[in-house]
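User: I'll paste a sequence; please echo it back and then give the predicted structure.

Assistant: Echoing your sequence first, then the prediction.
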Amino acid sequence: MAPCDADFGFAKPRAFRFPFDAVTPGLVVYPRRTHGAPNGDDEGNEFSIAFEKELATDLIGDPEWSPYFEFRGVDAVEKINA
């Protein structure tokens, strides 16, 4: 059973975080979405990877990277001059 398929009798979880024994800086892994995933049932795990804006073009265009990952935009940008 997938974690998001658990039924507690009053609600089902929409997401959870994997309990790692170590912290990996700049990486968050979310399990596949079971409710409203952008690509439907073909959606896999979701990775949120922090990296410098200057590296985005090189990373997105990398031939080893692009078959496995899809760039969906920037979640947040810090406001430097607040």
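The longest helix spans residues 56-61. The chain has a mean pLDDT of 73.
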